[in-house]
Design brief:
Strand order of the largest sheet of chain B: 1-3-2-4-5-6-7
Strand content of chain B: 5-15%
Largest sheet of chain A: 2 strands, antiparallel
Distance between the termini of chain B: 31 Å
Shape of chain B: globular
Strand order of the largest sheet of chain A: 1-2
Order of helices and strands of chain B: EHHEHEHHEEHEEHEHEHEHEHEHEHHH
Oligomer: heterodimer
Helix content of chain B: 40-55%
Shape of chain A: elongated
Radius of gyration of chain A: 19 Å
Distance between the termini of chain A: 13 Å
Number of helices of chain A: 11
Largest interface: A-B, 32 and 38 residues
Radius of gyration of chain B: 22 Å
Structural class of chain B: alpha/beta
């Protein structure tokens, strides 16, 4: 079956820009979350998931990791880490929830809010440059073959960060499968793959397996 | 002004495919296509020796292979100039600056000499470190984009020297630092570029097990017992005596050996003193191997790292710590101090273990020796972390992305 429109694979190359905000305690983290750029929220949540794509233990969210390792606040760390980037279609919503979690914690534990962290948190931000790859898929077979040989950055671009671009609560792959290939069930199953407990490579393997299963049906 | 011909490097971009995957190299080529034909000028203060020259020797040919036109220039100066820039270097790391105000005038006079010999006509001019920093062109006919790549830690500079240099730095279009903690509040954008190692270099390439075994045997190190290794200059800031104390604590539980390998003692008076202190601290313990290696020992260092059970980097202060990167790349479990750029590489309990004291270092080493499966997993994850962030190809990619970003903005 041929899609109505091809899937055009792209990739993104990222620069890390060092921001002007730092946090030495939880109160400063709360302020930083209010004032930092959207690019900074993206870098420390969506982008950090890709940066540590080969790890499955620990927190991929930089704010959570800092709360744990630099502040020794495991409860706060777990609360921050539980904010699932799949639930957000805008960085403003994600920022709002991050800020609320830290703020609530500081209100409940005022003595901990100004305790100096073991390490300073440096707010950074992502600068993204998109680059088209010479890869296109018209069919499910072509899609599977391209996914098998996709660079990590491209996989992350289409499977994780695309949620923000689309603002539809789904990823590029699922969107194309459902819209242009009529594969709604396959699209749904792809979107269920847990990006937190998988590495990018194991997520890729699962995508390929799901597509193969569909091809052999 | 000297234009540098890069060393004869036989490695081509495709040679990195086996380590990174052909798709990653293809992606790099797609990115490079967007800035194809642009001219790049790299300027630093030496063509041989030191980490910057080592990186440029690899980055320049790879950029040329990607169809960029790259020129690498090295500034020249008398002994007085380099005495001043050495004092700058130390004071930017926080040491007092003992030279007179005349030194600033001398620095600027040499800068003008170099400017007169140089042609600045590239699309992107990348000036490395403080020595050539004042070359930045601020005239009305300024061509291209100017980038200052600072390889040193500027977090606590000597105020007098920084006040002198800052007006020049502020004229650049952007600055690049190796860690967010090394940067300063500047009015120009600042970017994070990690330092990098070349996985195909003599110090990092794969070695046959026989080479590793032969090297250990040559230094009379027993390959059947655990080997703890720190590779570093004999410098107090690397805390070699602290490493011996940590080893002695570990030795109460494990029949292990310690290798302290480094160089720099021959031409560094303080290095000789530290080496003597290290030898005294080691006493007559036959399991402590203190190796004062010459600068051309890349292969030996590679073999020692590969033959080790645990790699240690117990620095008291550190720049980025590329010896940690080298250890991680070789899938070794690393125990290191949480200073400088080390925590960027050693993510505690994920790509290695961090420690903050002699006792902590000893405990983490014991933990790894007791749990080889965890040690192996940390090593494997450490290698992935390096593959993703700290290899020379990533460095090239960041430069390409920066160039593309500037063009998009323009």
């Amino acid at each position: 079956m041929r899609a109505s429109e091809p899937f055009q694979f792209e990739t993104a190359s990222y620069l890390i820009r060092i921001g002007n905000h730092t946090a030495c305690n939880l109160a400063e983290m709360q302020k930083g979350l209010e004032e930092c750029s959207d690019g900074s929220i993206f870098y420390h949540t969506f982008q950090s998931l890709g940066r540590h794509h080969f790890l499955t233990e620990g927190f991929s969210n930089d704010f959570a990791q800092w709360a744990l390792s630099a502040c020794n606040r495991p409860v706060l760390a777990e609360q921050l880490a539980s904010l699932d980037i799949r639930d957000y279609v805008s960085l403003a919503e994600l920022r709002s929830d991050l800020r609320r979690v830290v703020s609530d914690y500081c209100v409940a534990n005022p003595d901990q809010a100004t305790q100096t962290a073991f390490e300073t948190f440096f707010f950074c931000e992502t600068v993204e440059e998109e680059v088209a790859l010479p890869l296109q898929a018209w069919t499910l077979e072509e899609f599977r073959d391209c996914i098998s040989h996709l660079p990590h950055a491209s996989l992350q671009f289409h499977f994780i960060t695309s949620r923000l671009r689309l603002q539809l609560g789904t990823n590029d792959f699922s969107y194309w499968l459902a819209k242009d290939l009529g594969q709604k069930e396959l699209a749904r199953r792809l979107d269920q793959i847990d990006v937190y407990t998988n590495t990018l490579d194991s997520a890729r393997t699962q995508i390929v397996e799901l597509v193969e299963r569909e091809l052999h049906r | 002004m000297t234009q540098v011909q890069t060393e004869v490097v036989t490695n081509r971009l495709d040679d990195y495919s086996t380590l990174l995957g052909s798709e990653e190299i293809a992606e790099l080529r797609a990115l490079a296509e967007r800035v194809k034909g642009r001219s790049i000028q790299m300027v630093n203060s030496t063509s041989v020796g030191g980490g910057v020259a080592e990186i440029l020797n690899r980055v320049v040919p790879l950029m040329e292979e990607l169809n960029l036109s790259v020129k690498w220039d090295v500034i020249t100066g008398g002994e007085d100039f380099f005495a001043i820039t050495k004092a700058f270097h130390n004071s930017l790391h926080g040491e007092p600056y003992g030279l007179s105000d005349q030194s600033f005038a001398t620095f600027l006079a040499y800068t003008e000499q170099n400017r007169a010999r140089l042609q600045f006509d590239a699309d992107f001019t990348v000036i490395h470190d403080p020595q050539p920093a004042a070359l930045v062109d601020s005239g009305p006919g300024r061509k291209g984009h100017w980038i200052w790549r600072c390889h040193i830690d500027l977090s606590h500079p000597n105020r007098r020297v920084w006040d002198f240099l800052a007006p020049f730095v502020n004229r650049y279009d952007a600055a690049i630092f190796s860690s967010p903690s090394f940067a300063r509040q500047l009015p120009i954008p600042q970017y994070l570029f990690y330092p990098s190692i070349d996985p195909l270099s003599e110090k990092n390439r794969e070695l046959e097990p026989e080479v590793v075994a032969e090297t250990l045997a040559r230094f009379q190190i027993d390959s059947r017992r655990p080997i703890l290794t720190q590779i570093s200059r004999f410098d107090r800031l690397k805390d070699p005596v602290g490493v011996i104390r940590a080893y002695q604590l570990v030795k109460r539980y494990f029949d292990c050996q310690l290798v302290l390998a480094g160089g720099g003692a021959a031409d560094d008076p303080e290095g000789e003193i530290v080496l003597a202190e290290v030898r005294e601290a080691a006493g007559k313990d036959p399991d402590v191997h203190i190796l004062d290696l010459p600068p051309w020992s890349a292969l030996e260092i590679n073999a020692l790292q590969r033959g080790s059970t645990v790699i240690i980097q117990k620095s008291l202060r550190e720049g980025f710590g590329l010896t940690v990167t080298e250890g991680l790349w070789k899938k070794k479990p690393v125990v290191a101090s949480a200073v400088g750029g080390i925590p960027t590489q050693v993510i505690h309990k994920r790509t290695g273990l961090l420690a903050h004291s002699v006792e902590g270092t000893a405990y983490q080493i014991r933990f790894l020796l007791s749990n080889p499966a965890i040690a192996q997993k940390l090593g494997e994850q450490g290698r992935e972390h390096v593959r993703e962030n700290f290899l020379i190809v990533s460095n090239v990619r960041r430069y390409l992305t920066l160039f593309l970003h500037f063009e998009q903005k323009a």
